[in-house]
Amino acid sequence: MSELLMVEQRQGSGDAAFWVREGERLIEGQDSNLRLVELRAGLVRHSGVRPVEADAADEEVQRTLEALHEAEYLRALAELSSEEPVVMPDFAPPGLDPDIPVNKALVAAAREGIRTSITAAERVLEGARFTYAVCRPPGHHAGPAFHAGYCYLNNAAAAVRRLSDGGVKPVGIVDLDLHYPNGTSALVERMGSIAALHSLHAAPVTNLPPGTPLPRIAGERAVAFAESPDEDVYLEEVAHSIHELSEIARALVVSLGYDTVAGDPHGGWSFRPEIFTEVGRLLARSGLPVCVIQEGGYALDELAACSHAFATGLLGGE
Ligand SMILES: [Zn+2]
């Protein structure tokens, strides 16, 4: 039976999200280390899952960040010296208002998320078929010089970068989080032929300036659903994307969000956790190495069921 390497993030402290603005509403932060505990618990219930430490070198983390994010942005984050949360309007997504604050501890957690994601990519370079970065905060709303939606540094883009630097390219990115990956899209735009991005997400998309046409860039596939789709309809679109990407890519990076399940505090869709068994099966059938990066998913009571269902589909039932 295949094996899934579960990459465990180094644990920080005092690094839970403070709040996030959704439209006019200020919502208490839902992203904390409790999410990682639940995600890991679900994964290790499968006997094919093997935990490994996030051990990518500091230099590799720094090198990758400098390749993705603008120097001025990285410098501003590095200069945060206090636990006091601050809003940085200069680093909101272009055309949008800032929606999250940041502090020193959150930047440290985001860097550990990058280390975790790079480690997942490095294990693929070493020959692993399946790896899963159990990381937080999520990354797919973080762009070259902006942060939003709990995301400060882009984990999926870091994995893509590490894979391509190691000779595995092009990379297909499948983003299955509820939300459109505005940050990943902006970074992929700068990567040229290294990566292609496919996203399935809820409409209307609120993390781009109103009226922005999708797909944003050549080679991108953007599938929007105005309301919670039928699970079979959604899975057909997932299968379509995986098939298309497997024709051109040498590895898949999956931005996996569980905020599509019923009861998610940032959600609105009504998927059952079991849908991720079929998602895992489709990825396994691609024949490609699969590097999973955790994005959203905030219904703490459901996360273990989601990650377990995913591992079961990817590795086979028990
Ligand atoms: Zn999301």
Folded structure, characterized:
- 37% of the residues lie in helices and 16% in strands.
- It is built from nine helices and ten strands.
- It has helices spanning 33-44, 58-68, 71-78, 104-125, 155-165, 182-191, 231-248, 275-285, 300-315; strands spanning 4-8, 19-22, 25-28, 49-53, 130-134, 171-175, 195-202, 221-225, 251-256, 290-294.
- Helix 2 (58-68) crosses helix 4, helix 4 packs parallel to helix 5 (155-165) and helix 7 (231-248) packs parallel to helix 8 (275-285).
- Zinc ion binds at residues 177-179, 257, 259, 295-296.
- Residues 177-179, 257, 259, 295-296 line the site of zinc ion.
- DSSP helix fraction: 25-40%
Bound molecules: zinc ion
**Domain module tally:** 1
* Count of strand segments: 10
- Label the overall shape: globular
Biggest sheet layout: 8 strands, parallel
Kindly name the structural category.
alpha/beta
Q: Please give the order of strands in the largest beta sheet.
A: 4-1-5-10-9-6-7-8
* Overall average residue pLDDT: 97
**Which regions have little confidence, pLDDT < 50, spanning 5+ residues?**
none
Question: Which keywords apply here?
Answer:
alpha/beta; Arginase, Chain A; 318 residues; 9 helices; two-stranded antiparallel ribbon; binds zinc ion; 37% helix; single chain; 8-stranded parallel sheet
Set down the secondary structure blueprint.
Elements: E1 4-8, E2 19-22, E3 25-28, H1 33-44, E4 49-53, H2 58-68, H3 71-78, H4 104-125, E5 130-134, H5 155-165, E6 171-175, H6 182-191, E7 195-202, E8 221-225, H7 231-248, E9 251-256, H8 275-285, E10 290-294, H9 300-315
Parallel strand pairs: 1-4, 1-5, 5-10, 6-7, 6-9, 7-8, 9-10
Antiparallel strand pairs: 2-3
Helix pairs in contact: 1-9, 2-4, 2-5, 4-5, 7-8, 8-9
The structure holds zinc ion.
